[in-house]
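Preliminary data (for renewal application), SN-glycerol-3-phosphate complex.
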Amino acid sequence: MHIIGHRGASAYAPENTFAAFEKARKLGADFIELDVQLTKDGELAVIHDDKVDRTTNGTGFVRHFTMKELKKLDAGSWFSPSFQGEKIPELEDVLHKYHKKIGLLIEIKSSRTQPGVEQAIGRLIERYGFSNNTIVQSFDADAIMTLHNLYPSIPGAVLMRPRFGMLPHGRLRHIATFARYVSLKHTMLNPFLINFVQSHNLKVFAWTVNGLKTGLRLQGWKIDGIITDYPDYFAKEGKA
Ligand code: G3P
Ligand code: CA
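Predicted structure:
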């Protein structure tokens, strides 16, 4: 079972920063989950919200800043004064540091308001070399399909909230034509659903699992990975 640090080890360090990514790695995560938004100058910034207000000392939409302007913001102090000076990372810098060293689960946010985000991510990953452990996910299945059509070697994941703990067979069969994973909200999972999804040649990730009991239960149900703010709860061993 993969242990995937949600926005890094976001329980311990400001989400989507190198501090959180390093913490996840040290706590034994084998993947880092992160979110990307396109900037005004077409670069890929690692930040969850479409505005900078919640996680930095700035205000306004990410798409109204250049990457250079975003890097001037403090993305750590909101979490704790000890993280003052943490920056919004650029996806390229994350790939430079971690690609093929630790798994990356890159989430496309609001692809409809960011035309071309699939191409931008695909181009960057292609430059660093495709890897089974550099996965792109989105709630927008069309974005994952677009990415697959452009870059079939990039593994895709579709994020979903299954209704009443079920997913239609036809929908899963369709998703399996362009994605390798589905990422499902953990509260909606049961062993039958996990097995049903896997029978469509799709792997299953669960989000966001922050309880030890829940994680162990999912492991017993043969889930392929859990996305968690607390990688240390589940990882076999941390790293120096
Ligand atoms: O990876 C699943 C999870 O990250 C999706 O929700 O809002 O935390 O990006 P969110
Ligand atoms: Ca995310």
